[in-house]
Amino acid sequence: LFDGQQVITLLGQVLQEVLPCYANATAPGKCPANARPILEAVYVEGHTDNAQFRGREKDGNWDLSTRRAVNTYVALIDSQPQLRENRNASGMPLFGVSGYAEERPAADNATESGRARNRRIDLRFVLATPDPKKLDEMSREIRNRAGLEK
């Protein structure tokens, strides 16, 4: 069984091996031949169950989920500082954090096991949208191959 810090360390190692292949960074020689910068962002997302957190009354679960995401991000970067070097094609940092409180449940909050599943961290990988010129080129190529353009 792993503890939380071991999981974060292992996750950080795996991310540092894989992300440079798909971010705008100097990719190590271990990348697949067809790897290219397709990532726009990676969000560390914090979630809670629907039980009211006894912090600040109005935004307790929002605060808790965001702190959960920030703490996980900090632990991830502490374990693999070079993760901060990953950038998207625009040169912006790849990693960000977000908190969703109880707004995106993964399970039913009516049971303790469901509430436990909702107290979680997710990683969301956001793919970059091709620029309009590339989309037009792709569309023309598809039409050409389908015999729709002469």
List the helices and strands and how they pair.
Elements: H1 4-22, E1 39-46, H2 60-79, E2 95-99, H3 112-118, E3 121-127, H4 132-145
Parallel strand pairs: 1-2
Antiparallel strand pairs: 1-3
What are the key terms here?
globular, about 150 residues, 3 strands, three-stranded mixed beta sheet, alpha+beta
What would you say this structure looks like, in words?
It is a single chain. This protein is 40% helix and 13% strand. It contains four helices and three strands. The N and C termini lie far apart (61 Å).
Largest sheet: 3 strands, mixed
Mean pLDDT: 89
Number of strands: 3
Order of helices and strands: HEHEHEH
* Radius of gyration using CA atoms only: 20 Å
Q: Percent range for helical residues?
A: 40-55%
Shape: globular
Number of helices: 4
Low-confidence stretches: none
Global structural class: alpha+beta
Arrangement of strands in the largest sheet:
2-1-3
What percent strand?
Answer: 5-15%
Spatial gap, N to C terminus: 61 Å
